[in-house]
Design goal:
single chain, alpha+beta, outer membrane lipoprotein receptor (LolB), chain A, 13-stranded antiparallel sheet, two-stranded antiparallel ribbon, 15 strands, 17% helix
Length: 244
């Protein structure tokens, strides 16, 4: 009996380990739809929608190199020429005509309920541990499995996340972000995908901030064009970004 009990315990432990690996692999597949290319230039648009009506837009290019370096360059409109630079854990706003870059955080607003962090390189498979939340939900006509993610770092802005995943297509359906208090503060729904170079990538998502004045607005982020490119690492410094 003892031998049988021990064998069952070993099998259960192995099954649990394999299941955990499968979930982390699923997270990696989801990450690949949002971070498909290690170096790329992405042409994007953010549109704020209130009561079904568009109330503002912002066009910008996103330069990405690896996980930790990114540069957002606004094109046209009142923010034309402004840049948001990310290098590691640091983030700055560069304003035309201003000498010094302004330190900002990833939670600072891009437009409406969308923050600069919404276009950054958060990776679920690296930053979170997943477990089955024990349910399914329908999102945009997709049957999605719900996973509960727990942050690996105590410094994470969102210690808990609920992620809905289309297991058949291996794409994200919806993400819900929670504070340490348990309050849900943001929801992101992935509404469109496209295929580029044989890879499925996010083409559009809708962001809803559930707190504050932007809670009645939906911000639609459209990733209109992806272009792989060799990007000079010097542009990911305040001095280099100014010259772009």
């Amino acid at each position: 009996m003892r031998k049988t009990s021990f064998a069952l315990a070993v099998l259960l432990s192995l099954a649990t380990s394999v299941a955990a690996e499968d979930l982390q692999g699923l997270l990696a597949a989801v990450d690949a739809t949002r971070n498909a290319f290690d170096e790329a230039v992405i042409t994007a648009r953010a549109t704020q929608v209130v009561g079904g009506k568009e109330t503002g837009t912002a066009d910008f290019d996103v330069y990405v190199k690896g996980r930790d370096r990114g540069l957002i360059v606004f094109r046209g409109g009142k923010n034309s020429g402004r840049k948001v630079l990310t290098n590691g854990d640091k983030m700055w706003l560069l304003v035309p005509g201003s000498t010094n870059p302004v330190p900002i955080t990833a939670n600072q607003r891009l437009l409406g309920g969308a923050s600069f962090g919404d276009v950054s390189r958060l990776r679920f498979s690296d930053d979170y541990v997943a477990k089955d939340a024990g349910g399914k939900e329908s999102v945009a006509d997709r049957s999605c499995r719900v996973l509960e993610l727990t942050a690996k770092s105590a410094r994470s802005s969102y210690p808990r996340i609920l992620l809905s995943v289309d297991e058949r297509e291996k794409v994200p359906c919806r993400v819900r972000f929670f504070l340490a208090s348990g309050k849900e503060v943001r929801a992101v729904t992935f509404t469109k995908f496209q295929t580029l170079n044989g890879r499925t990538v996010v083409a559009e998502m809708e962001v809803r901030d559930l707190l504050g004045p932007a809670s009645n607005a939906v911000t639609r982020l459209e990733y209109r064009k992806y272009r792989t490119a060799r990007i000079d690492p010097r542009i990911f410094t305040p001095e280099g970004a100014r010259g772009l």
